[in-house]
TrEMBL record:
Pfam families in UniProt: RRF
Identification of the protein by name: Ribosome-recycling factor
Intracellular or extracellular location(s): Cytoplasm
Example of a GO biological process term: cytoplasmic translational termination
Entry's Gene Ontology cellular component terms: cytosol
Molecular function GO terms recorded: ribosomal large subunit binding
Primary location group: cytoplasm
InterPro entries, sorted: Ribosome_recyc_fac, Ribosome_recyc_fac_dom, RRF_sf
The protein's role, per its UniProt record: Responsible for the release of ribosomes from messenger RNA at the termination of protein biosynthesis. May increase the efficiency of translation by recycling ribosomes from one round of translation to another.
Taxonomic path: Bacteria, Pseudomonadati, Pseudomonadota, Betaproteobacteria, Burkholderiales
Protein family according to the UniProt entry: Belongs to the RRF family.
NCBIfam families for this protein: frr (TIGR00496)
Length: 186
């Protein structure tokens, strides 16, 4: 394994870590409706648990209302119950087969709690990125120990990995700031 391979591998893993963090942020609800909010809600569909998107059409009616249109007749009450029992704090209302899920306005206290959740998720992502840097540094040090690269190459590699890490940490900070601004916007 060469220094270039170590860097490329670390960069790919850091990119995946950022993508995972972005997905985590999408699950944190703001005052606006977003169909992805219901992605983690599971429905009992003939004995197996599946996401709502696999048994119904989830779309936006307006900025604060999600509509859920089940594909089968008897699924409406099951979907309604699953949304109600989820930890999202949503209260769907049925109109025939169509379910309307209004997004309640967030209180100031709830907004502050959500910003703490965002910061914690961001910190977890930063820790994951730093762990990837540590692993890559260890691999570079092992190459030096095995006399496959010089100490100067190792030093350059460590500096390069630190710059890469700083860039990804800055991206996490930018995502945190954007999500906090979105949550705190009234």
């Amino acid at each position: 394994m060469s220094i270039a391979d170590i860097r490329k591998n670390a960069e790919q893993k850091m990119t995946r870590s950022i993508e995972s963090f972005k997905n985590e942020l999408q699950k944190i609800r703001t005052g606006r409706a977003h169909p992805g909010i219901l992605d983690q809600v599971q429905i009992d569909y003939y004995g197996s648990m599946v996401p709502i998107s696999q048994v119904a059409n989830v779309s936006l009616l307006d900025a604060r209302t999600i509509t859920v249109q089940p594909w089968e007749k008897g699924m409406g009450p099951k979907i309604e119950k699953a949304i109600r029992e989820s930890d999202l704090g949503l209260n769907p209302s049925a109109q025939g087969d169509l379910l309307r899920v209004p997004m309640p306005a967030l209180t100031e206290e709830r907004r502050r709690d959500l910003t703490k959740v965002v910061r914690n998720a961001g910190e977890d992502s930063k820790v994951a990125i730093r762990n990837l840097r540590r692993d890559a540094n260890d691999q570079a040090k092992k190459l030096t120990k095995d006399k496959e690269i010089s100490e100067d190459d190792e030093r350059r590699s460590l500096d390069d990995l630190q710059k890469l890490t700083d860039r990804y940490i800055a991206e996490v900070d930018r995502l945190i700031a954007a999500k906090e601004a979105e949550i705190l916007a009234v």
